[in-house]
Amino acid sequence: MILCMMAFTTLSAQIRGEEIQVLVQPDHQDWTYRTGEKATFNVSVLKSGTLLNDVSIDLAAGPEMYQDVKKQTVLKDGTLKLSGTMRQPGFYRVDVTAHVGGKDYKGACGAAFSPEQLQPSTVMPADFQSFWQDAVAEARKTDLDPMKRLLPERCTKDVNVYEVSFQNERWGSRTYGILCVPVKEGKYPALLRVPGAGVRPYGGDVYTASQGAITLEIGIHGVPVTMEQKVYENLNNGALRGYWEFNMDSREKHYYHHVILGCIRAIDYISEYTPWNHQELGVTGSSQGGFLSLATAGIDQRVTFYAPVHAALCDHTNSLKGIACGWPHYFYWNKGKGQEKQIEVSRYYDGVNFARLITDKQTGWFSFGYNDDVVPPTTAWATYNTVKGPKEISPYRATWHFWYQEQWDEWENWLLKQMKIKL
Question: Residue 3's pLDDT band (boundaries 50, 70, 90)?
Answer without folding.
Answer: very low
